[in-house]
From TrEMBL:
The lineage of its organism: Bacteria, Pseudomonadati, Pseudomonadota, Betaproteobacteria, Burkholderiales. The keyword DNA-binding does not apply. The keyword Transmembrane helix applies. PANTHER family: ACYL-MALONYL CONDENSING ENZYME-RELATED (PTHR22911), SOLUTE CARRIER FAMILY 35 MEMBER G2-RELATED (PTHR22911:SF137). The chain crosses the membrane at residues 7-24, 30-52, 64-85, 91-113, 120-140, 146-165, 177-195, 207-225, 237-256, 262-280. This is EamA family transporter. One of its GO terms (cellular component) is membrane. Residues 6-136, 148-277 form the EamA domain. Keywords: Membrane, Transmembrane, Transmembrane helix.
Length: 285
C-alpha cells in the first residue's frame, strides 16, 4: 500500500458511498427490505475481503462489547431505513444533505451526554449546518414531499451520529472490519421480522441492485476505507469522504434529472464546508 494507492482507494470509497442513494432510487422495494439485503450481502463481501487479507473477523468479545455491538447494529439499521425512506420520498440530493447533518448532532450530543465542553468553533459548525438545512428545505410545509424527505434524512443523520458516538465508546481494541461485519449481522437479524415476508415479491432486477449495493457500496467501500487509513491520516480521509454529498447530487442530476436549485446548492456548500471544517479541526487536535 502506497500513499497514492491509498488516495485512490479513499476516493473510490467516497464515490461508492455517494452511489448509495442511487441504488435506493433504483430499487423498487421497501426501505426495510433494501436494508436487509444490503446488510446480508455486505456480510458476504466482508467475509471474502477478510479471507483475502487473512484477518479473523470472529474473535471473543466481552459481554459489554457484545451488548454495544448489538446497540450499534440496531442504530445502523435505523440509519439505513430512514435514509432509504428519505430517498424514496424526497430524492437523492435531499436525503444525502439531510444525512449530512450528523456532525451537528455529534456536537450537540458530545456536550449534552458526555459533558464535553463545546467550543465556539463547534457552535459555528452547528450554525452552518442548520443554515444549510434551512436553505435545502423546499418549503416549511409537511404537505411537501421534499420537506418530508428532508425530515427523514435528518433522522438518518441523527441515528448515524448516535452510531458514531457508540462506536467511539465501544470499538476500542476491536478490528474495524470485525466491527463492520458484526454490526451488519445484527442489521440482518433486526430486519428479518419486518422484511422476510416481502422476499417472495422481490423482483429479479431489484435483487441484482441490492447485491451491488451490499457488495460494492457497503462491503467494498468499507474495505477500501479501512485499507486507505494505513497510509492516510484522519484529516485527509475526512476531507475526501466529505465529498459524498457532492457525488450524490451529481449522480442524481445526471442519472435521474433531479436538478438542484440554486438555493439547494447554496445549502449544500454550507453543509459540506461545515463537515470539512469540522474534520480539519478534529484532525488538528
Amino acid at each position: 500500500m502506497t500513499r497514492q494507492r491509498a488516495l485512490v482507494y479513499i476516493h473510490i470509497a467516497a464515490v461508492l458511498f455517494g452511489l448509495t442513494g442511487v441504488f435506493g432510487e433504483l430499487i423498487q422495494a421497501s426501505a426495510a427490505l433494501i436494508t436487509l439485503g444490503r446488510a446480508l450481502f455486505a456480510v458476504v463481501a466482508l467475509l471474502g475481503f477478510s479471507r483475502l487479507q487473512r484477518r479473523p473477523l470472529f474473535t471473543s468479545l466481552t459481554p459489554a462489547q457484545l451488548f454495544m455491538l448489538i446497540v450499534a447494529g440496531c442504530l445502523l439499521a435505523a440509519h439505513w431505513v430512514t435514509f432509504f425512506i428519505s430517498v424514496k420520498v424526497g430524492g437523492i440530493a435531499v436525503a444525502t444533505l439531510g444525512f449530512a447533518s450528523f456532525p451537528a448532532f455529534i456536537t450537540l450530543f458530545e456536550g449534552l451526554l458526555f459533558r464535553e465542553k463545546v467550543r465556539l468553533a463547534e457552535w459555528l459548525v452547528l450554525g452552518l449546518v442548520t443554515l444549510g438545512l434551512v436553505l435545502v428545505t423546499p418549503s416549511f410545509d409537511f404537505a411537501d414531499q421534499g420537506t418530508v424527505g428532508l425530515a427523514w434524512g435528518i433522522l438518518s443523520g441523527l441515528s448515524f451520529a448516535l452510531l458514531a458516538l457508540s462506536n467511539r465508546r465501544s470499538t476500542v481494541g476491536l478490528d474495524a472490519m470485525q466491527v463492520a461485519c458484526g454490526q451488519n449481522i445484527v442489521v440482518v437479524l433486526a430486519m428479518l421480522p419486518f422484511a422476510a415476508s416481502q422476499l417472495p415479491q422481490l423482483a429479479g432486477i431489484d435483487l441484482f441492485w441490492i447485491v451491488l449495493l451490499g457488495v460494492f457500496c457497503t462491503g467494498l467501500s468499507h474495505y477500501l476505507f479501512v485499507s486507505s487509513l494505513t497510509k492516510l491520516n484522519a484529516r485527509t480521509a475526512g476531507l475526501v469522504i466529505a465529498l459524498e454529498p457532492v457525488y450524490a447530487i451529481a449522480f442524481a442530476w445526471v442519472l435521474f434529472s433531479q436538478e438542484p436549485s440554486l438555493r439547494m446548492m447554496a445549502g449544500a456548500v454550507l453543509i459540506v464546508a461545515a463537515i470539512v471544517w469540522s474534520g480539519l479541526r478534529k484532525a488538528a487536535h
